[in-house]
Here is the input.
Amino acid sequence: MLRSSWYNTLGVKDQKNSPGKMGLSVLLWWLGGVVAVLAVLIVGFGIVYRRIAGVSSSKTSMKGKTVIITGASAGIGMEAARDMARRGARVILACRNLTKAAGVAADIQTSTGNSDVVVRELDTSSLASVRAFAANVLATESRLDVLVLNAGIGGLDERQLTSDGLEMTMATNHFGHFLLGNLLLGLLKKCSPSRIVVTSSDSHGHISDFNPKNLNFEKGGFGPYRSYCQSKLCNVLFARHLSHLLADTGVVVNSHCPGLVATEIFQKSGGFLVGKLFRFLALFMSKTVEQGAQTIIHLATAPETATISGKFFMDCKVSQVESTYGRDNALAKIVWEESEQIVGLKPEEKHY
Ligand SMILES: NC(=O)c1ccc[n+]([C@@H]2O[C@H](COP(=O)([O-])OP(=O)(O)OC[C@H]3O[C@@H](n4cnc5c(N)ncnc54)[C@H](OP(=O)(O)O)[C@@H]3O)[C@@H](O)[C@H]2O)c1
Ligand SMILES: *[C@@H]1O[C@H](CO)[C@@H](O)[C@H](O)[C@H]1NC(C)=O
Here is the structure.
C-alpha cells in the first residue's frame, strides 16, 4: 500500500515494465533522504556547537594596559580587539592592509567608545616588515601587556616562497610570529606580569611524519593542508618551548584553538578539497566570530589564566594537545633552534 502510493507520487506507476527506470527513481528518493538527514545533522551540529561554545567569564578591566593583536583586520582577531577596546585597553591592530585596518579601527572606536585604537603596519610573511614593526613599537610604546599572535592564512595551492625564501604559509603563520615574539620579549618582561597568546588550531594534530629539518618543504612533502597543519603545530611548539624559557619571568605564553569559525580565512585559502569542503560546511557548523574570540579574551584577561603557561586551550579551558608531536619538549627545542636559524635571530635580538 505504502509502496504503491510512493510510486504514485513519483509518477512511475506506469513504468512497471521498466524496472531500470523504477530503480533509478527509488535510488534518487533514497539519495534525497540521505542528503536531508545529513543536512539536519549538520545544521543540528551547528546549533549544539554554538550552544556549548566556551565563553570567557573574565570581567577584568584592561585600562592602562597595551595589547597588540596581529591579524586584527578580520575575523577572530578583530573581535578580540573589539573586546580589549571595550575593556579600556590601548589596542594596536598589527595589520598588512592599512586601508582595511583603518576601517576596522574606526568601527571599533565607534562601537566601544575607546579612541585609543591604532593601526600599525605588519606583514608577518616578511621578516623585514616584522623587524620594522617591532622597532616602531619599541621606539614609541612605553609598555606592552598582552601580545596576541593571531594572523594566519589557511594554506595555498602551490608552494610559494616569500621574499626571504620561506614557504608562504609557514612564514605567515609561524616564522613571522616567532620573530615578533622574540623581538618584543624584552618589553613584555619589563612590563610583567604580561601574556602572550598564540592562535593555533586543533588541526596541528593532523600532521604525520613531521620533519623539523624540512620546515619550508625544501625537501618536498608540500601540501596545502599539510603546510597549514604544520604551521599550527609550530605555533603549539613555539608556545611550549617559550614557556620553558620564560619560567619565573612573569610572562606567560599559551596557544589555543578558536574552534571552527566561518571567517574570511576559508575564502582566502587554496581550492584544495579539504578547504572547499570546510568552506561549505563551516557556514552551517561554525561558531560566531565573537564566540571564536573567547579563548583569546580568556587567555589575555582572565585572573585564572594569569599564571598558566605552556598549555593549549580550547573553549576557554586547558585541553589535551592532540598530537604526540605537540607534547614533545625535545622536538619543541629543535623547532625553536631551527626557527632561530631560519629567521636569522641575532644575539642582540634574544631576550630570553
Ligand atoms: N576560522 C577558523 O575556523 C579557525 C580555526 C582554527 C584556527 N584558526 C586561526 O585563527 C587565526 C585567525 O583566523 P580567522 O579565522 O580570523 O581568519 P581571517 O578572518 O582571514 O583573519 C586572518 C587575519 O590575519 C591577517 N593576515 C593574513 N596574512 C597576514 C600577513 N601576512 N600579515 C599580516 N596579517 C595577515 C588577515 O589580514 P587581511 O585582512 O589583510 O587578510 C586577517 O586580519 C588564524 O591563525 C587561523 O589559523 C581559525
Ligand atoms: C585592502 O582592503 C581593502 C578594503 O577592504 C580592499 O578593497 C583591498 O582589496 C585590500 N587590498 C589587498 C591588497 O588585499
